Amino acid sequence: MEQYGDSAGPWHCGALQTCPRCLFANLLTSVLATRGRERLVRRLIRDPSSLNTGQTLRREGEPFQALFMLRSGVLKTFVVSEDGGEQIIDFHFPGELVGLSAMGTGNHLGCTMALSPSAVCVIRASDMDAVCKEYPDVQKRLLQLTSREIARRERMHQLMSGTRAECRLAMALLNIAERLGVIASRGELRFQLPMARVDLAAYLGLTAETTSRQLRRWEERNWIRTRGREFTIRVPPALRALAGRHSAAEAQRQVVNAGCQYMP
Amino acid sequence: MEQYGDSAGPWHCGALQTCPRCLFANLLTSVLATRGRERLVRRLIRDPSSLNTGQTLRREGEPFQALFMLRSGVLKTFVVSEDGGEQIIDFHFPGELVGLSAMGTGNHLGCTMALSPSAVCVIRASDMDAVCKEYPDVQKRLLQLTSREIARRERMHQLMSGTRAECRLAMALLNIAERLGVIASRGELRFQLPMARVDLAAYLGLTAETTSRQLRRWEERNWIRTRGREFTIRVPPALRALAGRHSAAEAQRQVVNAGCQYMP
DNA sequence: CGATGGTTTGACTTACCTCAAGAACAGTGG
DNA sequence: CCACTGTTCTTGAGGTAAGTCAAACCATCG
Counting one residue from A and one from B, how many pairs have CB atoms under 8 Å apart? Predict the structure, then answer.
C-alpha cells in the first residue's frame, strides 16, 4: 500500500498524490493500468482543496459544475424550510462521491456544508465529460456508482418508513459506523459521532429531545455508551435487531405467490 | 404526433412499434437520427410484455438482468419485514424506468409487483451494455436518468423527514398526480388513485387509518373530493402549502453565512 | 470569567398508532 | 337479480410514543 500524507485519519492523503482509497478505489479501479490512471487523476483532480467547519461546498440551486470526492471530514447536505428549520438530506463520509444527484437535473437540490475540517477533490464536470468520452469504462463505473447511490437511498426510504424512532436511530447509528469504516474490536463499535444530535435528528425526521431520550434508554440497558460525541455500540446485534433486519426471505415467499415471468 | 395502438391509455402503444413517449423520450432523445433510433429500439426491446394485477416483475434479491420501461399500468416495489408487513420503497408510473438501482449492486433490493394490468418493455442488461459501448451518448443519457432518480429520492427523503402526516400525504398525492401526467382542468386535478390506501400509507410510513382520517379532514374543508379511488384535488395550492414549499431561498441565505469557495 | 451553543431532563400536549367494529364495494356463484 | 364471501375503506375509543416548551446542565472558547 502506498504512503499516505500526514496523519489526519486513515482517508487523508497528500495533495496531488495518488489516492488509492478515494478516487482510485471508487472510480478508476480495474479500468486502466497504473500508469494510465495516474495521468487520468492529474487530469481529473484540478483543485484538491479544504473546508473549515461550517464552510459550504455549494449552495442550494446552484448549477452543477463539479463532482466532489470527499477525502477527509464529514459533510451534510440540507435544505431550509420556510419556518427556518433545516431538513438534512444526507451526510457524506470520506471516500464518498458528492454531487451525483445534480448531474441529471443540472443543479443542486440542497446546500452542502462541512461538519468538520474537510478535504475534497474537485472533479470538474467538463473534465469528467471529456474523460468519460475518451474512456467509456470510466463512465460505466460512474454509472454503477450512481446506481448504487439509488440503492442506498432506497434502503434509507425503507428505514424512514418504519414509523418508530427506535428503528430509525438504531439503523442510522449502525449506518454511520459502517460509513465511517469503523471496525469492531472485541465486538464493540467505537467512533466519534461526526454530527450534532440536532443534525442527526433532523436527518431522521425526529427532534433532538427524542434522540437524546432514546439514547439514554439504550445506555441504561448497557447497549451503548455515550460521552458527548464519543460513541460505543457495545451490543451491535441489539441495535441491528431493532433496525429490523428486512431480509425475510421466507415471509416474502409466503406473500408473493405469483411466479416471475421474466427471470427464469 | 404518431399513431398509438388501441386505447389502453395515453402511454400505451403497439408491441414492437416505436414508442415516442417511453423509451425514445427518456433514453434516446437527441442521441441519434430517427433511422438509427428505430434500429436501436429493435435491438434493445426484446420482450415487450404484460403483467396482470398482482403478478411480480422480479423478486427480492434476484440478480440484475434487465431494465424495465413501464408503458402502462402502475407497479410497486416493496420489501417484507420480519413481522410480515410490507414496506413500500417506490411506485412506478408509465414512462418510468424500473430497475436502475440494481445496476450498481447487481441485484434487486425489493420485489416489484403490478398494481393494475401493466405493460413493460424489457431491456436486457447485456443488450444495454452492448449498445452503451457502441453509443457512448446513450450511456450518458442513462447516467443522467440515473442521477435524476437520486434527486427524486432526495426530495422523497426531505418529504419523509417532515414529521407530520399531513405534509407527507399532501406531497405524495401531488407527486402521484404529477407522475400520472394529470393536467389541471379548471384548477382541479382529477385522477384515479392507482394503489390501495394501505399501500399509500406503507409508502409514507403511516397507517391506513391515519391516511383515511386525514383525507376526510381535507374533504370537510373542500380541498379534495374522494369517491373510492376517484380523486379530485380541488385546491392544489392548499395541499402544496402543506407539503411545505422548501425553496426558501431567503431563509437559507440568513442561515448560511459562509461563502462558497468553489462556485464563483 | 461569562458567553455561547450543544445536550440533557422534566412536565405537558398532541398526533399517531392500535384494536375493533361497521360500511362500502367487488367479485362469485346460485 | 340477489345473497354470499372477501377485501378495502371508514369510523370510533383509548393508549402511547413522540413533539413542544422550558429550564438546567455542560462543554468549549474567547
Answer: 252
The pLDDT of residue A257 is 27
Please report residues of A whose CB lies closer than 8 A to that of B147. Answer: 100-105, 146
- Predicted confidence at residue B260, as pLDDT, reads 29
**Domain end residue (candidates: A142, A160, A178):** A160
Q: CB distance from A264 to chain B under 8 Å? A: no
pLDDT in tens, B174-195: 999 999 989 998 999 999 999 9
Of B59, B162, B246, the CB nearest to A256: B59
> In 3D, which of A208, A209, A238, A241 has the Cα closest to residue A225?
A238
A238-255 CB burial, b ≥16 within 10 A, e <16: bbeebbbebebeebbeee
Q: What is the mean pLDDT of chain A?
A: 80
User: What's the mean pLDDT in A61-80?
Assistant: 90
Please report where in the chains the cell 389502453 appears, as a residue.
B8
pLDDT on residue B143: 93
- Compute how many other C-beta atoms are within 10 angstroms of the C-beta atom of residue B210: 17
The per-residue pLDDT for A26 is 61
* Single residue among A160, A194, A226 that ends a domain in this structure: A160
C1’ C30 / CA B125, Å: 51
Q: How far is the CA of B35 from the C1' of D1 (A)?
A: 58
Which domain range does residue A97 map to? 12-160
Closest nucleotide to residue A209 (Cα to C1')?
A: C8
Distance B47 CA to C17 C1' (A): 45
Cβ within 8 Å, pair B160-A161: yes
Assess contact for B111 and B79: CB atoms under 8 A. yes
User: Could you give the angle at the alpha carbon of B145 between the alpha carbons of A110 and B163, nearest 5°?
Assistant: 40
> Does residue B54 sit in the same domain as residue B118?
yes
Nearest C-alpha in A relative to B152: A101
Q: In terms of domains, do B116 and B170 share one?
A: no
Could you report the per-residue pLDDT of B208-232, keeping only the tens digit for each? 999 999 999 999 999 999 988 999 9
Q: Which residue of chain B comes nearest to A100, CA vs CA?
A: B147
> What does the pLDDT average to over A12-40?
58
| B90 shares a domain with B31 | yes
pLDDT at B251: 28
Same domain flag for A242 and A218: yes
What separation in angstroms does the CA of A163 have from each of B56, B87, B196? 26, 11, 19
Whether A54 and A174 share a structural domain: no
* Chain B interface mutation, best of A138, A155, A252, A257, highest count of B Cβ atoms under 10 Å: A252
Taking an 8 Å cut-off on Cβ atoms, the answer to whether A260 and B49 are in contact is no
- Answering whether pTM is above 0.85, one says no
Chain center to CA of B176:
8
Q: Which residue among B147, B157, B244 sits closest to A160, beta carbon to beta carbon?
A: B157
Q: What are phi and psi of A12, to 5 degrees?
A: -70, 140
pLDDT tens, A168-191? Answer: 999 999 999 999 989 998 999 999
User: Within a domain: residue A237?
Assistant: yes
Mean pLDDT of chain B: 80
